[in-house]
Design goal:
Organism: Folsomia candida
Largest sheet: 9 strands, antiparallel
Number of helices: 9
Strand order of the largest sheet: 3-2-1-16-15-14-13-12-11
CATH superfamily of the largest domain: DD-peptidase/beta-lactamase superfamily
Helix content: 10-25%
Distance between the termini: 65 Å
Pfam families: Beta-lactamase
Keywords: Signal
Number of domains: 2
Protein name: Protein flp
CATH architecture of the largest domain: 3-Layer(aba) Sandwich
CATH class of the largest domain: Alpha Beta
Number of strands: 24
Radius of gyration: 25 Å
CATH topology of the largest domain: Beta-lactamase
């Protein structure tokens, strides 16, 4: 073998260490990513299954699944496994009244749901044009646990993974556009390529290029900082929100991304337009990931590996990193934010002759124009005593337990249905308190101190007027 030919083989070997062969990652790079995901991210989060999709330069670099999509039957996850990709489907705050109109940014799935209903037909057509053959919505008729290729969700209870009640997913049906979509790694790879190609699929411009660029143009800036805090840190900061996508910067590169959450599924898609790179990951539980081993930090790690900037030394203990938050101004420190956590619950100055609150006074029907209706009744508890009981649709069943305090009007919700699994997965320490206003005759819910909605006594949705709207009321027309 000639010295020149040996040199040629050596160069080929070195190049294969850092660059994909035929559009795929080389085995050494795949092994780094596999070990990182299995030994760090899945191990630390106790995730039952994880899906990964990576595309670059119009090619699928790596699509795969890890773990078990069905633990009881020992069925592996793969690149055809359908995961809920979500979109923060659990509303945590009500926009109305939180900030003055058109002064600030607040994320609300309700409005995405309305937009999704208006564009439902176009969305189905888009999936077909992108050849996303397996992507679908949750349906009331679904038997999710027994449907092909579907990942089952799991949550942690006393340190053990328990199967999530799949019937709970159907709560999302009225707002499927905001969080009820299931997709596979193969289909998400096609979607990321569609995003990175500015709406083009092959030779067909499915969505006008100017529209795609408009969707990725910053419309709601967020407070951010580019300051590094340690020498070997990298800048990871939010810039703001565009139209359905967040925008930020990682290591100097623009990133367009969005996270999704439909309990207990958690996902994130990140694209780096200038590098023509896209990364998507999703987990089937046990809920929200730990901050230092989140989908965001996983994407940064995969980004660095693919860019050849470093080789990770994987160990069972994740490396501490400041990248996910060191350069982002904490929410509580924003100088222009109107929302503040309620550290104490205000009580009205009730008339002294009104007497102590009686359970019968709270019994009744309550409604909210955005969030629906519920009833408060009296029901026999396990001790044989009548106790206040909240009935909010199929799953919102809870006992109202009066909190101690003189003339207290605050009740802790003690869940009486599998909806409690939502809180095991999302925030096991979460407490929801119902505060009764004796003057206004309303109930306001506080979740960990934050108001999440006020419901008026004897308010029925059928009695409310339709949402007022008139041409020109929403600013300059852009379409």
């Amino acid at each position: 073998m000639s010295p020149m030919f040996r040199l040629f083989l050596l160069c080929c070997n070195l190049l294969s260490t850092f660059y994909p062969i035929n559009g795929q990652l080389d085995p050494g790079t795949r092994l780094q990513i596999d070990e990182l995901i299995e030994n760090v991210y899945m191990a630390e989060n106790n995730s039952p299954a994880l899906g990964l999709g990576v595309v670059k330069d119009g090619q699928v670099y790596y699509n795969t699944g890890y773990g078990l999509r069905d633990i009881s039957n020992g069925i592996d996850a793969n690149n055809d496994t359908l995961f809920f990709i979500g979109s923060n489907s659990k509303q945590t705050k009500i926009c109305a009244g939180m900030v003055p109109f058109r002064t600030n940014f607040v994320y609300d799935n309700g409005y995405f749901s309305m937009a999704g209903e208006l564009a439902a037909g176009q969305l189905d057509n888009l999936f077909a044009q992108l050849d996303m053959q397996t992507t679908t919505y949750i349906k009331v008729s679904d038997d999710h646990d027994n449907m092909p290729n579907r990942a089952l969700g799991y949550f942690l209870l006393d340190g053990q993974l328990e199967k999530y009640n799949s019937e709970l997913y159907k709560r999302t049906v009225p707002m499927n556009a905001a969080g009820g979509i299931l997709s596979s790694m193969n289909d998400m790879a096609k979607y990321m390529q569609f995003i990175l190609n500015n709406g083009r699929v092959g030779d067909v411009q499915v969505v006008p290029e100017e529209v795609m660029k408009w969707l990725q143009t910053l419309s709601n800036p967020l407070p951010s900082s580019g300051k590094l805090t340690v020498v070997n840190d990298k800048m990871a900061t939010e810039l703001g929100y565009s139209l359905g996508l967040f925008m930020g910067v990682y290591d100097g590169w623009l990133t367009v991304y969005h996270g999704g959450y439909l309990t207990p599924f958690n996902s994130q898609m990140s694209t780096f337009p200038e590098l023509n790179l896209g990364i998507f990951t999703v987990t089937s539980g046990p809920g929200r990931l730990l901050p230092n081993v989140s989908h965001a930090t996983l994407h940064y790690d995969v980004f660095d590996i693919i860019q050849g900037q470093r080789q990770l030394k994987v160990s069972p203990q994740p490396q501490q990193t400041n990248r996910a938050g060191s350069c982002i101004i904490p929410f509580d420190n924003w100088s222009n934010v109107y929302v503040r956590k309620a550290t104490t619950i205000e009580r009205k100055d009730f008339a002294t002759d009104a007497g102590l609150l009686q359970d019968e006074e709270i019994v009744g029907h309550y409604g909210n124009g955005q969030s629906g209706e519920f009833d408060v009744i009296q029901k026999l508890n396990g001790s044989g005593d009548f106790q206040l009981y909240l009935s909010y649709g199929q799953w919102g069943q809870a006992w109202l337990s009066l909190l101690p305090g003189e003339e207290s009007y605050n009740y802790l919700l003690v869940w009486d249905s599998d909806i409690v699994q939502e809180f095991y997965a999302t925030d096991p320490s979460s407490e929801i308190i119902a505060v009764y206003d004796r003057v206004v005759r309303s109930i306001t819910f506080l979740e960990n101190g934050y108001p999440t909605g006020t419901y008026l006594r004897d308010q029925y949705l059928d009695d409310l007027p339709t949402t007022p709207w008139e041409a020109g009321s929403c600013g300059q027309q852009t379409i």
